[in-house]
Amino acid sequence: MEDPSQRVYVVDDDEAMRDSLVWLLESNGFAVEAFPSAEAFLERWHGDMRGCLVLDVRMPGMSGLELHERLSARSAVLPIVFVTGHGDVPMAVSALKKGAVDFIEKPFNDRDLLRLVAGCLDLDQTRRAARHREEEVRRRLGALTDREREVMELVVAGKLNKEVAEALGISIKTVEAHRSRVMDKMEVRSIAELVQAVLEGGGRTR
Amino acid sequence: MPLPSRILAALRRAASPGARVWVLPNLVLGLFAIALFALLAVLGRHETETRRNALARDVQWAEQTIRTRLAANEDFLQLLAKEVAEERQDADSSSRRAAEHVAANPELTQVAWIDADQVVRWVAPRETTAWNRGERLSIPEQALAFQRAQRTGTPAYSMPAPAADESASIEIHVPVFRDRLFRGVVVGIYAADAVLRYLSSSWFWNKYRVVMETDDRVVAANSSVVLRTDLTELVRLDPPGQGLRLRVSAFADESNLPRDMLLLLIIGLVLLMGWSLWTLSAHMRRRLAAEEGLRRESAFRQAMEESVITGLRAVDMQGRITYVNPAFCGMVGWSADELIGLVPPFPYWPEEELATLERVTATWMGGQSPPSGFEVRIRRKTGERFFGRMYISPLVGADGRQAGWMASMVDITEQKRARAELEASHQKVVTAQERLQQTSRLVTMGEMASSIAHELNQPLAAIANYCMGCVTRLESGAFSPDDLASAMRKASDQAERAGKIIRRIRDFVKKREPNRAPVPVAVIVDEAIGFAEIDARKAGVNIRLEVPQELPPVFADKIMIEQVVLNLVKNGIEAMHGSAPGRRELTVSARVDEGRAVEVAVADRGHGITPEQSGRLFAPFYTTKLDGMGMGLNICRSIVEFHDGRLWARPNDGGGSVFVFTLPVER
Questions:
Q1: What is the ipTM of this complex?
Q2: pTM, whole model, 2 decimals?
C-alpha cells in the first residue's frame, strides 16, 4: 500500500538528531529527505510533495510551529509529526489544534515514531486521493453551463423535473435535456452518484 | 540731637571710666586758675589799698608842707607888716627884706605894700606888669581880700586870680594897723603853680598828678594829662581856703608791668596746662581706642582659638610645649597647665607608638614635614587611643626668626571608622551579592530544568534512533556492517555529548543543586536544632519541640530546609537576648496544613516585630541586627518558595514573634 513517491521529510537543527532520524527511518524502509532548518525546507517545498513531515518544534530561526503555520497558509496537506522536548507539551497541543497530526516527546520509542510516520503516510495518501476526487468533481463542475448548474443544484436538492421547470420557468422537456447533459458531464449514472460527487467536491457546485 | 538725649549722652560719657579720669585734672586746673585769679585780685586790691594809703599819707604830707610854708610866709608877712606899721624901717629896707624872703621862698613871687587907699607903695623884689608902684588894686579878688583883711584885721587870702602871664596867682593880704588905724596891707603873691612846684618835693611831683582847683576851675596843675583813675585824694587847702583844694591822682604805676606780666603768664600757663590736658586726653583717647581694638582683636583670637576644633600645639626649638589650645587639650585629656613646658616624649604618646612618634618628631624637627601631615596614634588621659592627623609648620616670630613649630591636629578616628565601615559595608554587599547569585541560581533551577532536559534529550534521542535503526536492520538482515559500525560510532559520540552536558550542568549548579526527596519533618527539625543547641545553651534559651512523629514526609531538599530552620531558630535565640531569663523559650512546632502541606512554626518570646519592620522583613539587605547581613530571611523565603511553600511572620500571642513556613507533602 506504500506509495514509492512518498517521502519522509525530516526538519531538525540538531545534526545528530537529524542524522539519526534519517538512519532510523531508512532502516525501516522509508525514503527520507532531511533539512537543517525550516527555512531550507520551505525553499524546497512544492504542492506536489508527498509523504509526511517530521518537524522539531524548537529550532533557531523559524520554529516548527511557524513552519506549520506557513504551510497551512499555503494549503499544504503534508501531515506533520512534531518532535518536542521536555515541557513543550502545551506548544504541541496548540499545534494539534491547528491541524498537525500528532506529536512525540523526546526521547521517544522508535516503534512509536515509526507508527506515527506510517500513519501519516497513509493519511497523506487518503488525503491526496480525496483531494484528487474533489479536483475531478471541480473540473467537471467547471464544464457545466450556468443553466445546467442551476438545474443540477435543484435536482441534487431532491426536486422533481416538474418542480424544477416551474422554479426556473422552463419546460419539463428542457429540464430533462439539461439533466441528461449534467449526468454526462459529471460522468455519473444515477442521481445518487451525482449527489456523492457533489459532496466529494466539498458540497460546493461552483 | 534733642537736648535730653544729648544730656544723657554726656552723662554716659561722664559716667564712663575714661571720662571720670579727666574730671579731677580738669577740676584742679579750674580751681588753680580761679585761685590764682583770686590771689591776683586780692593782691591787686591790697596794692591799691596800699597805694591809696600812701597817697593819702603823701597828700597829707604835701598839704602839711604847704600849710606850714604858707603859715611861715604868713608869719613873715605879719612881721613885715608890723615893721611897716611901726615904720621902724624905711620902705627900702622893708622891701629889701621882702625881696630876700622872696628869694628864699620861691613859691612867693612878690611881696607888695599897699596903703589904705589901695595904692601900691612898693613891690619887692621888683615891679612887674601886674604890680607897679602907685597903681591901685584893679582886680576884684584883690579888692575883696583887701577889704576882708581890713575888716577882719587878720590876713586874708584872695581867690586865685589869673595873673597876667595866665598862671593863676593867690594873694595874702596882711593888714597893717598902727594905733588901731588901718594903714594898708602887706600882700604876698603866690604863683599857684609855684606853690605846687616848690611846696612839694620832686618825687611827689613825679608820682602824682597834682591839681589845685576851686569848685569851678583848675588853678594849677603839674600835668595837663587827665587821669582816669579812682586813686585820687582831695584835700582842702586852708589856708588859703576860699574853696581851694588839692586834687592828687596817682600816675599809672610802671610797677604794674610785672604784675600784668604775671597775670599774662598765669593765663598763659593755665591755657598751656589746659591745652596739655586736652592733648593728653586726646592721646589717652587714642590709646584707649587702640587698647579697645587690641582687646577686641585679642578676644576675637581667643574666641577663635577656643571654638576651633583643630587641636593646636606650639613647641619651641627644643621641642618644649609653649602653647596648646582648648581643642588640643580636649583631644588628649590633659589640661594646658599640665602640658605646657613638657618635652618629648609627651604623656599622650602611647607606649606602643613611642618609637614611631620619636621618629616622626625627629623628621619634622629636621624640617621635613609632608604637606599631607602625619597620621599618628594618640593616647588620651583615659588610656583610650585615637587616630589624629598632624600638620607641622615652622613658627616664625615677629623678628622673622623661627621660634619653634606649630602643630595642628585633627581627630580622624571618625573618618577612619567611617572609611572602615564603608569598606565593611562594601564587603558585605559583595558577599551578599555572591550569596544572592547562588540563591538566584537556586531559584532559577526550575526554569533551567526544561532547557537542561531539552539539551540532554537531543543526544539521548539520537542514540536511541541509531540503536533502533541498527536493530531494525539486523532483524531484517538487510544491512552492511560498515553502515552499522558508522551508526554505532555516531551513537557512541552522542552518549559522550550527553555526558559533557551533564558535567556542564553540574558545574553550573555546583553545591547548590537542590535534591528534593520525601523527608520527615521531624528529621529536618532535629538536625537543625542539633546545630543550634550550642548557641541556645550559651544564650540560656530553652528549645521546646512539638513535632508529631506521624506527620507525612515533605518533598524537599533536606539540607536547604535544615538551613531555613536553623536560620529561624538562630534568629529567635538572638531576638531573646533582652528577654528575662525565665521567658527565654523557643518553640518549634509542626502540623499538617489542609492535608497537602506541613506547616512548621518557630516561635520566640523576644522583642517582637514592629509593624514598620514587618513590611521590610524579607527584603534583601534589611536587618535589625548589629552584625546582620539582611540576607537570612530573604534566602529562607527564596528556598521555601522554591519548594512551592510560603514563609511569613506573625506576632506571638503573649510577646515575641512566630516565623511560619509551609512545605508540600510528598506527591
A1: 0.74
A2: 0.35
